[in-house]
C-alpha cells in the first residue's frame, strides 16, 4: 500500500492562488503532454510559462522528454494551460503528488482535461504512429490499492465513491474522430482501452500476452490516476495515446521497446497530434461538463 501522505485542500489552493497572482490567463482547458508530446504547448498563443521548480508545491519532472514547464496561453482564442511534462509513480512520487496539478487546475476554473500519452500497442490493429482515442482504462495499480483517492475523502473535491463508467467523454471522442477524418488522418485513428502499469520497466513477453488476453489495446505508465482525480472533481476528460511502439508479444520477435525511439515517434507525429488537439479545443462545447457533481 502507498503511504497516505495526504495533501490538504489549502495546499492545492495555495498553488492555485500563486498561479492566479502570476498570470492573467484564466484557463478553461488543461492539457497534459505525454512523453515526446511536449510540442503540444508550442501551439499556444500569448504564452506565459513557469518552470515547475518555481511553482510552490509542484513536483519537478525527472524524465527525459518532459520539459517540466507549465505553459498558459490560447488555442484559437480559448484559454488553456499545458503541462509540458507529467509526473509518474515510477519516479518515486506518491499518487497524490503525480495528480497534484489536476486539482490545482480545478481550482483555477478548468472545466475539461485533455490527457495525452505515449503507449505501447497491444491490439493487432494498432501500428506504431497510430493515435488511439482512449475509451476506457484499466488502472492496474488501483486494482491492488494504489489509488490517488485513497485516504480520507476531500468532499470539497468530490464524493467518496466516484463512478468511473463513462469517464472518457463520449461527445469529445466522437468529435475527435470527426476531426481526424477532416484532417485526412482517419487511417491512423482508433478507439481503445488503455492500461496503466507501474513501470519503469517495459513489459515482459508473458505480461504483454496477459494484457492482450485481458482486452487491453495499449499500455503505458501514466494517465489513469490523473483521469480518476479529474473525474472525481467533475472535470470532463478526453484522452489519447500515441502508439509509439508495438509491444513485443512473441518469443520469436527480437525487437524491444526503448525510450529514445518512443521520443522519436512523438516527434514524427507532433504536427498531427497538435492539429487534432487544437481543433478539438476550438470546436468543443466549452461549457459542457460531466454530470459528476463537485465544487
Ligand atoms: O505516459 P507517458 O508519460 O506519455 O510516457 C510513457 O512513455 C514512457 C516510457 O518511454 C513512460 O513514462 C510511459 O508512461
Ligand atoms: N508500459 C509501457 N509503457 C510504454 N510507453 C510507451 N510505450 C510503452 C510500452 O510499450 N509499455
From TrEMBL:
Residues 29-281 form the Nucleoside phosphorylase domain. Homotrimer. It catalyses: 2'-deoxyguanosine + phosphate = 2-deoxy-alpha-D-ribose 1-phosphate + guanine; inosine + phosphate = alpha-D-ribose 1-phosphate + hypoxanthine; 2'-deoxyinosine + phosphate = 2-deoxy-alpha-D-ribose 1-phosphate + hypoxanthine; guanosine + phosphate = alpha-D-ribose 1-phosphate + guanine. Keywords: Glycosyltransferase, Purine salvage, Transferase. InterPro entries: Nucleoside_phosphorylase_d (IPR000845), Nucleoside_phosphorylase_sf (IPR035994), Pur_Nuc_Pase_Ino/Guo-sp (IPR011270), Purine_phosphorylase (IPR011268), Purine_phosphorylase-2_CS (IPR018099). GO terms for cellular component: cytoplasm. The keyword NADP does not apply. GO terms for biological process: purine ribonucleoside salvage. PANTHER family: METHYLTHIOADENOSINE/PURINE NUCLEOSIDE PHOSPHORYLASE (PTHR11904), PURINE NUCLEOSIDE PHOSPHORYLASE (PTHR11904:SF13). Catalyzes the phosphorolytic breakdown of the N-glycosidic bond in the beta-(deoxy)ribonucleoside molecules, with the formation of the corresponding free purine bases and pentose-1-phosphate. Preferentially acts on 6-oxopurine nucleosides including inosine and guanosine. One of its GO terms (molecular function) is purine-nucleoside phosphorylase activity. Pathway: Purine metabolism; purine nucleoside salvage. Its EC number is 2.4.2.1. Belongs to the PNP/MTAP phosphorylase family. Coiled coil: none annotated. It is an enzyme of class 2 (transferase). It comes from Zoarces viviparus. This is Purine nucleoside phosphorylase. PROSITE patterns: PNP_MTAP_2. NCBIfam families: PNPH (TIGR01700), PNPH-PUNA-XAPA (TIGR01697), PRK08202.1 (NF006054).
Amino acid at each position: 500500500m502507498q503511504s497516505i501522505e495526504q495533501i490538504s485542500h489549502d495546499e492545492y489552493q495555495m498553488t492555485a492562488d500563486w498561479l492566479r497572482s502570476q498570470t492573467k490567463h484564466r484557463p478553461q482547458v488543461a492539457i497534459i503532454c505525454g512523453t515526446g508530446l511536449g510540442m503540444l504547448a508550442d501551439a499556444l498563443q500569448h504564452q506565459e510559462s513557469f518552470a515547475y521548480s518555481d511553482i510552490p508545491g509542484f513536483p519537478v519532472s525527472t524524465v527525459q522528454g518532459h520539459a517540466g514547464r507549465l505553459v498558459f496561453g490560447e488555442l484559437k482564442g480559448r484559454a488553456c494551460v499545458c503541462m509540458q511534462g507529467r509526473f509518474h509513480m515510477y519516479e518515486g512520487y506518491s499518487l497524490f503528488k503525480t495528480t497534484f496539478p489536476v486539482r490545482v487546475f480545478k481550482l483555477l476554473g478548468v472545466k475539461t482535461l485533455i490527457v495525452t500519452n505515449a503507449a505501447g500497442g497491444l491490439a493487432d490493429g494498432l501500428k506504431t504512429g497510430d493515435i488511439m482515442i482512449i475509451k476506457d482504462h484499466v488502472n492496474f495499480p488501483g486494482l491492488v490499492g494504489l489509488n490517488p483517492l485513497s485516504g480520507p475523502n476531500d468532499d470539497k473535491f468530490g464524493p467518496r465513491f466516484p463512478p468511473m463508467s463513462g469517464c472518457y467523454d463520449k461527445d469529445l471522442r466522437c468529435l475527435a474522430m470527426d476531426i481526424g477524418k477532416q484532417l485526412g488522418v482517419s487511417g491512423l485513428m482508433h478507439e481503445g482501452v488503455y492500461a496503466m502499469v507501474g513501470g519503469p520497466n517495459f513489459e515482459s513477453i508473458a505480461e504483454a500476452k496477459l494484457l492482450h488476453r485481458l482486452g487491453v489495446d495499449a499500455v503505458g505508465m501514466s494517465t489513469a490516476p490523473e483521469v480518476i482525480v479529474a473525474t472525481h472533481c467533475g472535470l470532463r476528460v478526453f484522452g489519447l495515446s500515441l502508439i509509439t511502439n508495438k509491444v513485443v508479444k512473441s518469443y520469436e520477435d527480437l525487437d524491444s521497446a526503448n525510450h529514445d525511439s518512443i521520443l522519436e515517434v512523438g516527434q514524427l507525429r507532433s504536427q498531427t497530434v497538435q492539429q487534432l488537439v487544437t481543433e478539438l479545443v476550438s470546436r468543443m462545447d466549452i461549457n459542457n461538463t460531466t454530470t459528476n457533481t463537485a465544487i
